[in-house]
Specification:
4 helices, 0% strand
Amino acid sequence: MDTTTGTGRGWGRFGELASDALRYWEPRRLIYNGVLLVVVAAEFLLRWPQSKSALTSDLLLVCFMLAVLANVAYCAVYAVDLFVQFSGLRSSWSRVRWAVLLVGTAFAATITHFFSQGLFDVGPGR
C-alpha cells in the first residue's frame, strides 16, 4: 500500500477499469435515451389526437420521473461491466459490450412501450 496516498494496487486497478467503463458507457447513454424517446413519441403519435387530451402537468412530471428511473436502471450496466473486467475477461468483453447495450436498450424500450401505452391510453371510460 502506498502510505503517501492511502491507495493500494487494487484501488488503482479499480480506477482504471471504472474509467474504461465510463468512457464506453456514457456516450452510449445518448443512444439509450434516444431510443426511449422515439418509443414514447411513437406511442404518443400513434394515439393522436386522443393522446393530446392526456397531456397534463402531472403527465409531464410522471414522464420526467420515469426518464430518471430509466437512467438509474442504465447504471446497472456498470456493475456488470466492472464484474466482467475484474474476472479477467477484459479482452473478450471489449468485443461483446455492444450486445449488452443492444439487449439492455431493447429491454428498456419494451418496458417504455408498455408504460407509454398506459400513459396515453385515453379511450372511453378514462
